[in-house]
Amino acid sequence: MSASPPAGSPDPADDSAALPAPAVPGAPRGLAGLDRRIAGCRACPRLVGWREEVARTKRAAFADWTYWGRPVPGFGPVDARMLIVGLAPAAHGGNRTGRMFTGDRSGDVLYQALYEVGLASQPTSVGVGDGLELHGVRVTAPVHCAPPANRPTPAERDTCRPWLVQELRSLRPTLRAVLVLGGFGWQAALPAFAEAGWAVPRPRPAFAHGARVTLEGHDGLELLGCFHVSQRNTFTGRLTPLMLRDVLRTAASAAGLPHLPEERRADGT
What we know:
metal-binding, alpha/beta, globular
């Protein structure tokens, strides 16, 4: 099965799209323009080499796919009231499909939970064009390229930060809550919130599952923490489906989004 590039994605031969993250302030206004610029970024040589090598060699199970092999922009409505911040795209997930948390087991867990609490139109996310819609929620990451061993370097994280800052600024009129998955995302996001105009407490709040901090500025922003939906956490029970649904409901309430109560089950009962 081949995957089509997301709508509006840059032509690989268009050098004007391949601009580094520091060029974000000059990007076209709006999230659509920002997403296009992100998808053409080549600022980190190690990440560029890795994502493109993975796209060439592929995984045997996806040998008939045309991998995206570029930075993966955020996904969700431009007027989202709630933002979910992960870590980075998976090599054979978002790096293959071109959409955040799509095509890998972490995404399977996240979108199932979003569906069960009424924030997604369907419980699965397998590829661009599968019909998935998010209700008032956008999903992004502080690092937009798949990193080797799922570990971006501090320098790569910092180089990618201007993209997250610009995304936050674009969402600022409607954004009311942010759910951060994992300690890496938490530490990467805090300075981005400050650069985007919210006041981050000092000392900086520590990450914890269930942590909740109010950031002052721009009508306020509720920042919540959740263990990452990684296989290590979900397979060992460190993060259970119930825990994830509970924190999603808390974040949705903080954002003023309608959501379904715990009585909603995966089978609809």
